[in-house]
DNA sequence: CCAATTTGACCTTT
DNA sequence: AAAGGTCAAATTGG
């Protein structure tokens, strides 16, 4: 079993474990704070697990519109023998859809390529037809926190002062405290880009996502503690961790953006974080029909 | 001494 | 076979 699978399994186990703990705290004697804490943990585990799955191309099959970024399929390992059939099948159709493409220009003058996150370089390759090599970075907290965010950085041929940055995967780590404020929750429907989302809307969406995703938790929340916790549960502001951290952006109508941004560097914000959060809204979707209850998947 | 980077080998996909 | 992406040992730097 490789690292990814272990992490996935651990997160699911953790989620189950904490859910059990939460169950024990359903007594009126327990404090809402405690329950909130447990809920936070549960959601965090789910988020990481989903992040891993999305990284493997599982979750976005329902978004066939996003084909602009022709990226290579996600990580695979030859040790994944038993579930390879599943993986391959899924990946074939969803390859390139889960990825986030972000192109921005950065002046080498002020803090080049610093987007507020801690990245660790893990590779560099010469790219055919490009004068400059492409750098591969992953989140520094990949192993400590299981954060699967990566990015690719390549200097533009046309304008060497510009860097094209492709972000892939979502941050599930707690870094860059300032960014937690501006993170935009998952959005499932709107393809309108650069449109600020109303909080209520996204909250509902997030809530719906998780509720429809885990029926046990759903029942738990609706029947037992929703009354006392619904507000806190729905509100991202109550959470300390970045559940909805910078997330994969589906291309949508991004093709036009691409050329725009490249040809007009000044149109790009100097603070990729803020810009990213608003413009590259995550449209990650959880396929409701995804066979999470299928034992074969984890075999 | 530890952590980040470099860099050629290796793997996957086309 | 070639290209892009990742791994990991060696190297570098704080």
UniProtKB/TrEMBL annotation:
Instruction: Report the main location listed first in the record.
Output: nucleus
Entries under InterPro entries matching the protein: WRKY_dom, WRKY_dom_sf, WRKY_plant
One of its GO biological process terms is:
response to salicylic acid
Subcellular locations according to the entry:
Nucleus
Gene3D superfamilies named among the record's database cross-references: WRKY domain (2.20.25.80)
Q: Which UniProt keywords apply?
A: DNA-binding, Nucleus, Transcription, Transcription regulation
What Gene Ontology terms describe what this protein does at the molecular function level? DNA-binding transcription factor activity; transcription cis-regulatory region binding
SUPFAM superfamilies the UniProt entry points to: WRKY DNA-binding domain
Q: Name one GO cellular component term.
A: nucleus
Pfam families in UniProt: WRKY (PF03106)
Q: Which residues form the WRKY domain?
A: 108-176
Check the record and name the PROSITE patterns matching this protein: WRKY (PS50811)
The molecule here is called NAD(P)-binding Rossmann-fold superfamily protein
Question: Highest lineage ranks of the organism?
Answer: Eukaryota, Viridiplantae, Streptophyta, Embryophyta, Tracheophyta
């Amino acid at each position: 079993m490789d690292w990814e699978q272990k992490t996935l399994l651990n997160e699911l186990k953790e989620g189950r474990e904490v859910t059990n703990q939460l169950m024990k705290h359903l007594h009126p004697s327990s404090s809402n704070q405690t329950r909130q804490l447990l809920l936070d943990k549960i959601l965090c585990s789910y988020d990481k697990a989903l992040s891993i799955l999305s990284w493997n191309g599982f979750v976005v099959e329902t978004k066939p519109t996003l084909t602009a970024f022709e990226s290579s399929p996600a990580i695979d390992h030859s040790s994944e023998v038993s579930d390879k059939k599943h993986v391959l099948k899924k990946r074939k159709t969803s390859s390139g859809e889960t990825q986030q493409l972000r192109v921005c220009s950065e002046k080498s003058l002020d803090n080049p390529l610093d987007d507020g996150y801690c990245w660790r370089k893990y590779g560099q390759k010469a790219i055919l037809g490009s004068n400059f090599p492409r750098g591969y970075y992953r989140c520094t907290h990949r192993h400590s926190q299981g954060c699967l965010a990566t990015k690719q950085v390549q200097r533009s041929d046309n304008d060497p002062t510009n860097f094209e940055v492709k972000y892939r995967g979502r941050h599930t780590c707690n870094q860059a405290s300032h960014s937690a404020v501006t993170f935009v929750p998952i959005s499932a429907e709107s393809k309108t880009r650069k449109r600020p989302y109303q909080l209520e809307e996204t909250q509902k969406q997030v809530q719906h996502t998780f509720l429809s995703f885990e029926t046990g938790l759903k029942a738990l929340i609706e029947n037992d503690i929703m009354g006392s916790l619904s507000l806190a549960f729905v509100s991202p502001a109550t959470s300390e961790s970045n559940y909805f951290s910078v997330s994969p952006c589906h291309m949508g109508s991004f093709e036009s953006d691409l050329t725009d941004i490249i040809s007009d560097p000044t149109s790009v914000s100097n603070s990729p974080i803020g810009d990213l959060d608003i413009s590259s809204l995550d449209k990650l979707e959880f396929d409701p029909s995804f066979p999470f209850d299928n034992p074969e998947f984890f075999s």
